[in-house]
Amino acid sequence: MMRSQRRANRAIFLAVAAGFVMLAVAAAAVVWAFQRAQDYSELVAHTIEVEAAVADLNRLNERIETARRGYLLEGDPRFLDTFEATAAEIPGQIQRIAELTADNPEQVKRITDFRGLTDQYLGLMRESIADKQAGGSGVKGASLLDEEDIQVVQRLRDLADEMSLEERRLLIARESDEKRSVYLSTVIAVAAAVTLILVALGTIWATRRTLRALASTGQQLQNLNEDLESAVLERTAELQRANAEIQRFAYIVSHDLRSPLVNVMGFTAELDAAIKPLGELIDKAEEAAPEIVTDETRYAVREDLPEAIGFIRTSTEKMDRLINAILRLSREGRRVLAPEAVDMNALVSSIVDSLQHRIDELGITVEAEPVPTVVTDRLAVEQVLSNLVENAIKYLKPGRPGRITVRGRKNAGRVLIEVEDNGRGIDPKDHERIFDLFRRSGTQDQPGEGIGLAHVRALAYRLGGTISCESALDEGATFRLSLPTALAPQQGSNT
Amino acid sequence: MSAHQTVNIVMIEDDEGHARLIEKNIRRAGVNNPIRHFMEGTAAIQYLFDAPDGPAKNGPALVLLDLNLPDMSGIDILQKMKAQGSALRRTPVVVLTTTDDKVEIERCYDLGANVYITKPVNYETFAQAIRQLGLFLSVIQVPEPELD
């Protein structure tokens, strides 16, 4: 599914890129077509200009002919003025056409012919004028129509027509070229536009599909999230139920265990009490009739019975302490926590004060560094800390002056409280074990049942915290309690 | 009634060993009152309220009550005895049990228990407590039941 999604994404990307390329092509085609159109209008203007110039030249030729004829007919010198003025204009006009058509070799050739013919024509006309001035008729033949210059004029006109025609022909050829290129660019633009529209439609469709997929994914995610939350709630409720069950179980079991223990202890005491009269009996018997007292009886009454009773008693006492510990733990687990802002500095100093007697006795230095205030259950946190400090005092290294440091700091929404000592330390393999109920570590030279740290850990967990140990043998130990800065208030009691 | 009647001790205790130890120590304290022992609640209630020689019909009594009984909780018996209009409303009840739960103790006193004693596992303490209870029994005045 992921791969097809990725392929679809790549296709969409390519389509969008292609769309932009099409857009660029269409724009280029339009620009090109526009330029072609501009070129074309320039060419048209050029042709018109050339034609106009040719027409002007024709007009000048007509005018000069008219002036000469007028002079030949009437001999009025004013015609000569017109003749000369027009003759002076003609070379300029020819030059102008030559410049306009300089790019066309055929036209250049024609204009050269034209120029030659014009010179010839002007020469012929001047001859006839000179003839008239000299008193002749100015006409060589019988009529003006027979004059050589008529042919010249005819050729001039033909040349002018040719030049005009040539320009027209060029224009038409160029026009068809133009039309073809404009048509081509239009086709390109239209094709690009169509492609663009298709790509746009495709992209819109793909985008909508993606958006819809995204929305449904979001919805799914939200559903999953809600499911997860309710699953967590359900699981939490289950755990709480299981926990309450265990607490109740521990309570009932330990409670019911006490009943038979009362009997064991009680009847042991009765037995113990019975030893006394028995002993007296043995004494008396030894006095009165020593032969009936065997060594076996004597040992049984004086050694075996007291020894057995002693073992039963210490064992039951120990069992009682263990049961009491379980009872206390289960009771602690059922107590409703009451979070409040606890001034940890005051709490630490009150713990130290309560242990001051032993601290002085053992010559221990206690340093209480500042600890941030925590919103938590006062009683529980006090039990935890006082247990840790008591342990630090209890398990010092003989011969090394004791030093205990309590410090705290805030760390990412939690408060870390450390109790550090320079005592006998704990073997790293026991770091987990010491928190288990009835488990202890190191030399068993101190009284205790292995309950304190189990209790500490149970309390730390209940406060939403953790407890860990960092230590090596003979190098002291650091117990680190991590508590949430604020414990959420609990609802109701589960007792 | 002017004649001084013997106070019967009614012991409701499901553990025979406990019962025996309690009895022994009471006797050691010099208390010679008759002791009736019941091991379950139903029989005890029947004796307390209905038996012709029971406390409700006949003479004063003192009840030693354990809370953990096989067929009911001792609290039920206490409640029944201390209920409004009960003939045994004034009969002293000594709750003698292994529970030292604060809530439980408070509840018993609220229901009208006269004394609450936790059975200590340490036998010396236990024996002493029972003997003291015996001394207490030998001096207290127990009211007559309200006969109807």
Automatic annotation (TrEMBL), chain A:
Catalysed conversion reaction: ATP + protein L-histidine = ADP + protein N-phospho-L-histidine
EC number, UniProt record: 2.7.13.3
Domain of life: Bacteria
Coiled coil stretches, renumbered: 43-70, 211-245
PROSITE patterns in UniProt: HIS_KIN
Domain Histidine kinase per the UniProt entry, residue ranges: 252-487
Record field: transmembrane: 182-206
Gene3D superfamilies (UniProt xref): 1.10.287.130, Histidine kinase-like ATPase, C-terminal domain
Keywords linked to the UniProt accession: Coiled coil, Kinase, Membrane, Phosphoprotein, Transferase, Transmembrane, Transmembrane helix
Principal EC category: transferase
Protein name: histidine kinase
